[in-house]
Amino acid sequence: MKTQNYILILLIAFSSTMCNSSKKDKEEIVPKEKTSKTEKHQHETLSGNDSLKLVNHQIEVKGEVEFPLQLTVDSLKKMKVITIDNLKITGKNGEIKREIRTCKAVLLKDILEKAKIRQEDHKDRNFYIVERASDGYKATFSWAEIFNNPTGDNAYVLFEENGVPLKNGEMIAICKNDIRTGPRHVYWLKSIEVYKVK
C-alpha cells in the first residue's frame, strides 16, 4: 500500500512538473514572436520620383477656423518671416540626423491667428491642431502648446533652407524646441487642420 501511494505521489509530481514546463515553454515562445514582428516594421525609403509626387504647392488651413486659407510659398513670404540659424533635426534616439545652417519660416501660431480659430469666448480653448502630410503622416499640437507655452514660439512652417527652396516638399512643418524634432518634422505638408475636443 505504501509503495502504491509513493508511486502515485511521484506520478502526480511528475505530471505537475510537465504541465508547468509546457506552460513555461509557451510563455517563452510568445515574446519571441512579438519581438520578430516588431523588428520587421521599417519605414519605406522613397525614390526621388516618388518624393516629387508627394510635393504640395499649397497647404490648406481648415477645420474650426473662421477664415480657411490656401497658403503657398509666396503667401508665406508676405507674412512675418523668421530666420532660424543652426537648426538640428534629431531622431527618435536623440541623434542628430541633419543640421541646417539657416532657414526661413513662418510661425504656426501666426498662421493660426490669420485663419482665426473659431472660439465661442476666451475660455474656449479645447482645440487640437493636426499638421498632415500628403503621405498620410501627421503631427499634433494642443491649443495650449501653441498659444500658452514656449512651443508656440518654436513651431514653424519652413519654406527655405540655406538660401534655396526646399527639396522635400515646398513647405515643411517642424517644432524646434522638441527634445526629438523628428516626430513633428512633417515633410510634404498638405494641411493644417483645427479640431475641437469633444
Folded structure, characterized:
The protein has 198 residues and is an alpha+beta fold. 32% of the residues lie in helices and 31% in strands. It is built from 5 helices and 10 strands, in the order ααββαββαββαββββ. Strands 2-1-10-5-6 form a 5-stranded mixed β-sheet. Strands 3, 4, 7, 8 and 9 form a 5-stranded antiparallel β-sheet that branches. A hairpin with a 5-residue loop joins strand 3 and strand 4. It is globular and about 40 Å long. The chain starts with a helix and ends with a strand. Mean pLDDT is 80; it is low at 16-43.
Quick recap:
This protein is of the alpha+beta class and 198 residues long.
Note the overall shape. Answer: globular
Low-confidence stretches: 16-43
What gap, in angstroms, lies between the N and C termini? 74 Å
Largest sheet: 5 strands, mixed
Per DSSP, what share of the residues sits in E-state strands of 2 or more residues? 25-35%
Number of helical regions? 5
Name the structural class.
alpha+beta
Number of strands: 10
Going across the biggest sheet, name each strand in turn: 2-1-10-5-6
- Measured as a percent range, the helix fraction is 25-40%
Helix and strand string, N-terminal first?
HHEEHEEHEEHEEEE
Average predicted local confidence, pLDDT? 80
Q: What is the gyration radius calculated from CA atoms?
A: 27 Å
